[in-house]
Amino acid sequence: MSDIRDNRFYSEEHEWALPTEGQIIRIGITDYAQCQLGDIVFVELPEVGSSVTAGDSVGSIESVKTVSELYTPVSGTVVRVNDKLIDAPEAVNSDPYEDGWMLEVEVDGSVEEEIGKLLTPDRYRTVTD
Amino acid sequence: MKPEKALIFELTQPGRVAYSVPDCDVPEVDPASVIPHGMLRAKPAELPEVYEVDVIRHYTELSRRNFGIDNGFYPLGSCTMKYNPKINEDVARFPGFAKIHPYQPEESIQGALELLFTLQNDLAALTGMDQVTLQPAAGAHGEWTGLMLIRAYHESRGEKRTKVIVPDSSHGTNPASATVAGFETITIPSNDLGLVDLEELRAAVGSDTAALMLTNPNTLGLFERQIEDVAKIIHDAGGLLYYDGANSNAIMGITRPGDMGFDVVHLNLHKTMSTPHGGGGPGAGPVGVKSRLVPFLPKPVVGRTDDGVYYWDTDRPQSIGRVKAYYGNFGILVRAYTYIRTYGPEGLRRVSENAVLNANYMMHRLAPYFEVPYPGVCKHEFVLSGKRLKAFGVRTLDVAKRLLDFGYHPPTVYFPLNVEECIMIEPTETESKETLDAFIDTMIQIAQEAETDPQLVINAPYTTVVKRLDEATAARKPVLNCSC
Amino acid sequence: MRRIPGRIVGQTTDRDGKRGFVLTLQAREQHIRREKATSNICSNQALLALCASVYMSVMGKAGMQEVARQNMSKAHYASGRFPSGSKAFTEPFFNEFVIKLPESSNIPSVNAKLLKAGYIGGYDLGRDYPELAGHMLVAVTERRTKGEIDDFVREWEASL
Fold first, then answer.
1. Smallest CA–CA separation between A39 and chain C, in Å?
2. Percent helix, strand and coil across chain B, each rounded to 5?
3. pLDDT below 70 — which residues of chain B?
């Protein structure tokens, strides 16, 4: 049974989104996703300052025998990425919701509007069942 | 437990040598008097300093730590790990083949040229193509060569076609070769039967379609029954049909890509024609084409005059050029030639018939224990899904590792990508019923172990020279150089 | 490193901490990344790598230098045996050099005569460089003796 946190929002592609402060939304992949991928060995993240649209591939996540795209669930500008993952990608496996976060996007419109398009924790549970 | 194996560098004792070369019987030239200062090495390369016996024992031991086709059953799907007859090796070692150089005058290598010429024609006859180049070094190189031929063909007609279509079950080399050859790949989903979805194909083709790349039978081991419809859709759109010959062991002497409508074919001689794989030798990926593509073939090809003299045919103005130094992996071509002569047309047909029979026998015996996602009649290989075992925490990778404890090379796993927990088995024709049964019984035993003692499977292997290796750390913090 | 093509072997450890080797960084490769792979390379050519590895182990630190020295010394000895007018270049060379034939002679005929005498003659550079018609490339390795070199130059002169 995978860990699904009630305080955040989800995409069909198994990303989570967490509004932090102001217009900023933090993004990572879910516990279900890291479990499916297995041991993650490398994470490629977007450049800070790049503008992204929800659904865009903004990076990739490599495990030993697979590679999967990282999609952004929201639109805006990348303001921060988790550089620690370059040297310690295993954090995505051990702590996908906290230490394993991937990027922060400053949304152009309202946070509520961006989040409103995503899945609630309950809806996401039905996706992973 | 066997002790850790020392690296050859760790055996070094300064001053030891394993070689002897004749004394230099001419005046010695001081390198410093010839080579410009700054280009001379300050100190020698860090190479091992060991005795000859150390070298022999070291590499012999390394070879014993490998599982090869001469050690046991090797059902690696899509790789056609058949037994490689030893006569191939004997012939390849004839001094007349092993000790010649491609720059020799043609009159001094007529035997080698005749062999190449005959092999070109044999492979053309087997595949239903009009002309063959033997240059490509392996399958993916053949794919790239074929795609460059396709590009040259379209360009010669003033057409710019940029897209190559592949099914989602295709080998990874197909889209990768398309990219390397400068094309854009379009991947189309397979239908519920695991075959090319004709509607998806119709929707994908257009005036920018350069080619469709296909294996037949496909990577699920299924024969693409509507291949003639596929060919018509592609040809009507002005595209060409590329045959990935990785699965040719299913069809030799039974049907030919050329008759199915394919325009370009590559064969993996290290699969179908029993030449060694990987550590045993380089590959070879000859490419055959229909007549409209012949002018573009890499040069030279081997020609024969009316007087029976063989020669390098370099007068090919539309050729895409050389794709390999000299003439491909010649020693491998000698082995393939030997194999074809050994079996003859009837024998090669029996090879494919038995390869298909063996695969079907195994699939039917394993079906009660592993899910068969595409039931029915398979060709030379078939896929199983290990997803039932996930309930016990056992994954396909664990089953593969556990097989090592029983002396088997595992099947291909997690390919094709469109089958969950995929196990892809290709027995080949060279295995006896006893070998197949013993392997099947082992697979059944492992499936039972997964239910009753999953940890036993999850922690496998136990009997190999090293136990399960930490691949994650190897990829996270790569150690790629000897640190000694 | 995550962009280079082809197979890469890496060192790692097994469950017991024992050294072992794996194919690593495979997510670059065609069987995983497909059209986005860094190359389409699949079949390996490891026998050739093995041969080279064994050879370097046999020759070792001293042997590789000894072979190189002999190549150079014997090639320079051979070059010195040819008539001085036949030297095409004065630049430094290692173990092969270019010989220019007299106007009255041509390479196919010289090489045909040499073949009858049991030698495969020099490479006809005119095949690749039209401006070097009538020039042949001669290579000498550590395996040749002074006697063989002398005999070859004598046959070459006789074949002009």
1. 12
2. 40, 10, 45
3. 1-3, 483-484
- As a whole number of angstroms, the distance between CA B422 and CA B386 comes to 6
The Cα–Cα gap between C54 and B252 comes to: 38
List pLDDT tens digits, range C73-129. Answer: 999 999 999 998 899 999 999 999 999 999 999 999 999 999 999 999 999 999 899
Closest CA to B250 of B276, B218, B277: B218
User: Which pLDDT does position B3 carry in this prediction?
Assistant: 63
Nearest CA to CA, how far is B281 from chain C (Å)?
5
Task: Kindly report the nearest CA distance between residue A126 and chain C, in angstroms.
Answer: 29
* Domains of chain C, first to last: 9-44 (no CATH), 61-159 (3.90.1150.10)
H or E stretch at C139 = strand C135-139
Kindly determine whether residue A39 and residue B414, on different chains, have CB atoms separated by under 8 Å.
no
CA distance C60 to chain B (A): 5
Is A91 part of a structural domain of the chain?
A: yes
Neighboring chain B residues of A65 at a CB cutoff of 8 Å? 414
The highest-level CATH class for domain B87-342 is: alpha beta
Contacting subunits of C (3+ beta carbon pairs below 8 A): A, B
Token pair 């049991």 is found at C118
The CATH number covering residue A67 comes to: 2.40.50.100
- For residue B95, give both structure tokens: 């001094």
Domain residue limits, chain B: 8-64, 87-342, 352-473
Contacts of range B389-395, beta carbons closer than 8 Å, 24 or more positions apart: B389/B421, B389/B447, B389/B450, B389/B451, B390/B421, B392/B450, B392/B451, B392/B454, B393/B454, B393/B458, B394/B450, B394/B454, B394/B457, B394/B458, B395/B421
Say which residues have a Cβ less than 8 Å from residue A90's Cβ, sequence separation at least 6: A39, A40, B472, B476
Q: Looking at B47-109, list the stretches that DSSP marks H as alpha helix, in order from N- to C-terminal side.
A: 52-64, 86-92, 95-98
CB contact under 8 A, C56 and B48: yes
* 3 state SS of B168: coil
Q: With contacts defined as CB-CB under 8 Å, which chain A residues touch B414?
A: 65-66
CB atoms C42 and B18 under 8 Å: no
Phi, psi of C70 (to 5 degrees): -65, -40
A41 neighbourhood in chain C, CB within 8 Å = 27
* A69: closest chain C residue by CA: C33
Residue type, B217: P
The reported pLDDT for the residue numbered B1 is: 47
* Cis amide linkage into residue B461, ω under 30° from 0: yes
Q: What is the DSSP string of A55-118?
A: T-EEEEEEESS-EEEEE-SS-EEEEEE-THHHH-TTHHHH-TTTTT--EEEE-SS-HHHHHHTS
Look at domain B352-473 and name its CATH class.
alpha beta
Q: What is the pLDDT of residues B377-427, one digit of tens each?
A: 999 999 999 999 999 999 999 999 999 999 999 999 998 888 999 999 999
> Which of A65, A66, A89 is the closest to B476 by Cβ?
A89
C-beta atoms surrounding B244 within 10 Å: 31
Size of interface B-C (CB pairs under 8 A): 222
- Taken as a whole, chain A contains a residue count of 129
d(CA C45, CA B76): 19
Q: Name subunits touching A (3+ CB pairs < 8 A).
A: B, C
What residues in B contact C13, CB-CB < 8 Å? 469-470, 473
Instruction: Tell me if the bond preceding B27 is cis, omega within 30° of 0.
Output: no
Domain-embedded: residue A97: yes
CB contact under 8 A, C32 and A66: yes
